[in-house]
UniProtKB/TrEMBL annotation:
EC number: 2.5.1.145
Ligand binding (a 1,2-diacyl-sn-glycero-3-phospho-(1'-sn-glycerol)): R140
GO biological process entries: lipoprotein biosynthetic process
Location of this chain's protein in the cell: Cell membrane
Source organism of the structure: Usitatibacter palustris
Annotated protein name in UniProt: Phosphatidylglycerol--prolipoprotein diacylglyceryl transferase
Membrane topology: Multi-pass membrane protein
Keywords: Cell membrane, Lipoprotein, Membrane, Transferase, Transmembrane, Transmembrane helix
Length: 266
């Protein structure tokens, strides 16, 4: 059995200000997004955007991730806790951002950006989707460092004891956060980067993102410990899987629609 390295969530402190690994992971995510999106623009794969658009789009995306992600955590996963402790809602530095909520927040933020700039929303989503998975990987790594969202108890040789989760003694759990780094982060990135390396019908790249994330997240949920705040599973399906199912179905429909109706575009 492996033992979690028990990394201090705080990198360093200056007076009352603490710099946390979880926050640093989001900085890495945003830097990776900007860098990769601009690489695609320089390669001529994103005619709908220029490099300065990415800088502006980042601000919209950050707000969408934080506001949507926090609201998703509050409404989807822990409504009882946050309604009893409303001050905790604003403490995003302690962790607790729902991917599905953040995703809806980003969709809304990008729509506002496109409305103001006169750009086609779906084409912009296609343009930036391949740059998103490394940020997902960084977020999951932050979960691992914080010893949050662990896997289920297991007897596999690489099972890991998370002392913060099981302080009473060694309990081997799946390091599901690392599985998600590999699936939702790295694997999805390589799939999208390859798929988006050639012109595709508008909506196809976004559709592949939806299907890929939804499938990979659903697979990880089989070994991820269901959160107690949502009473585990419903009809044998976790909340994460329920929230991912519409992504897969919409993604499949978008790919079919894109190849049937749309001309080629990046």
């Amino acid at each position: 059995m492996l033992v979690h390295p028990q990394i201090d969530p705080i990198i360093f402190s200056v007076g009352p200000v603490a710099v946390r690994w979880y926050g640093l992971m989001y900085v890495i995510a945003f830097v990776a997004f900007v860098t990769l999106a601009k690489v695609r623009i320089r390669r001529g794969l994103v005619p709908t955007l220029v490099e300065s658009d990415i800088d502006d789009l980042l601000l919209y995306g950050v707000l969408g991730v934080i506001v949507g992600g926090r609201l998703g955590q509050v409404l989807f996963y822990e409504p009882g806790y946050y309604f009893e402790n409303p001050i905790e809602i604003v403490k995003v530095w302690k962790g607790g951002l729902s991917f599905h909520g953040g995703f809806l927040g980003v969709l809304t933020a990008v729509w506002i950006f496109c409305h103001r700039r006169g750009k086609r929303w779906l084409a912009v989503m296609d343009a930036v989707a391949p740059a998103v998975p490394p940020g997902i990987a960084a977020g999951r790594l932050g979960n691992f460092i914080n010893q949050e969202l662990p896997g289920r108890v297991t007897d596999v040789p690489w099972g890991m004891w998370f002392p913060a989760i099981d302080p009473g003694g060694p309990v081997a759990r799946h390091p599901s956060q690392l599985y998600q780094v590999g699936l939702e982060g790295l694997a999805l990135f390589f799939i999208l980067w390859w798929f988006a390396s050639k012109p595709r019908p508008v909506g196809a790249i976004s559709g592949v993102f939806l299907v890929g994330y939804g499938v990979f997240r659903s697979v990880a949920e089989f070994v991820r410990q269901p959160e107690a705040s949502v009473q585990g599973v419903f009809l044998g399906v976790t909340l994460g899987q329920w929230l991912s199912l519409p992504m897969v179905l919409v993604g499949i429909a978008m790919i079919a629609w894109a190849y049937k109706k749309q001309p080629l575009s990046s």
